[in-house]
TrEMBL record:
UniProt organism field: Cohnella phaseoli
Chain segments carrying region Disordered: 286-314
Domain of life according to the entry: Bacteria
GO terms classed as biological process: regulation of DNA repair
The keyword Cytoplasm is annotated on this UniProt entry: yes
Function statement: Modulates RecA activity.
Protein name: Regulatory protein RecX
Length: 314
């Protein structure tokens, strides 16, 4: 994220000196602003932007009605051959002499990259003067658009929860309010949905990684998903899917589990419990894996002994 360097003076306003299409980002435009930092402390600044409304009206009149203005904005920006350089340009006016109230103004050129919608809604015509508040709003719009594009790239690589995405944006240097605005925009576009994420995550973990509902619940909460969305996703998990996952894992691990029949079933059940499967399902899967292997004994494992060894409540 680019960080502009500014003269350490309050901004009095700015004037739009250039509007050109971004060469690499569709629907994005570079708007060049000549910032006015007012005057030295103690000198009057009332006349710096006293004619803003009049000058903006003149700029509007050059383009006629609103539709013509929009066409002029977009066509003029898109046909520009190259963006103006964003080098800092400082100039000083005449210094006050004697008892004269002439102010010494400081100027700096800066370039903001904004979306086409902002360009049109703010009516950023060349020659339009902006107040300090309007300049700050444009800076915020630029940050929000940058964060939005960064978020889209992250979501293309992998699905994320709202909490994960906001954390990633903050690590990139975006302010909390910018990250929140970006998340809200994505939620409205249905591109960020924790409820849908939780359901996909639950199914994928159960089928693809053979994990039980308790471990899946823990992982979703760690990813910042709201507990209500988590419980809904866990509640919709197909019991047969979870059962097949437990059996598949038990069958895979049984041959490599060491010990006698009772020890092997206890180890296998302990492993399934750690994978998040409920007690009854873990016990059933361990016994069935042993039975299918032809190694189970009807009295090979006593349930009370297992719970006593693992210090679990039935």
């Amino acid at each position: 994220m680019d960080k502009d360097k500014h003269i350490d003076l309050p901004i009095a306003g700015a004037v739009v000196t250039g509007v050109e299409a971004h060469p690499k980002k569709p629907h994005m435009y570079r708007v060049t602003l000549k910032l006015d930092f007012g005057t030295e402390p103690g000198l009057e600044t009332e006349d710096n932007f006293g004619e803003t409304a009049h000058e903006n009206a003149d700029a509007d009149e050059r383009y006629g009605d609103w539709n013509s203005e929009v066409d002029a904005l977009i066509v003029g920006a898109q046909t520009a051959k190259r963006a103006k350089k964003a080098d800092l340009v400082h100039s000083e006016g005449s210094a006050a002499t004697g008892h004269e109230s002439t102010a010494r103004s400081l100027h700096e050129e800066t370039v903001l990259t904004i979306h086409e919608d902002t360009l049109v809604s703010r009516r950023l015509l060349r020659g339009r003067r902006l107040t300090a508040e309007e300049v700050e709003v444009l800076r915020q719009d630029e940050q929000k658009e940058e964060a939005y594009r960064a978020a889209l790239l992250m979501l293309e690589r992998k699905a994320r929860t709202t909490a994960e995405l906001m954390m990633a944006l903050k690590r990139k240097g975006y302010a909390a309010e910018v990250a929140e605005a970006c998340a809200e925009r994505l939620r409205k576009m249905k591109m960020l949905d924790d409820s849908a994420y939780a359901k996909r995550f639950t199914e994928q973990r159960a089928v693809g990684q053979r994990k039980g509902r308790m471990l899946i619940r823990q992982e979703l909460l760690q990813r910042g998903v709201d507990r209500q969305d988590v419980e809904q996703a866990i509640g919709e998990l197909d019991g047969d899917v979870e059962r097949e996952a437990a059996l598949a894992l038990a069958r895979k691990r049984w041959p490599s589990t060491k010990g006698n029949d009772r020890e092997r079933q206890m180890k296998l059940m302990g492993m399934l419990l750690r994978r998040g499967f409920p007690n009854s399902l873990a016990r059933m899967a361990a016994q069935q894996a042993a039975a299918e292997a032809g190694e189970a004994r009807s009295d090979g494992m006593d349930e009370d002994d297992f719970y006593e060894d693992y210090d679990l409540e039935q």
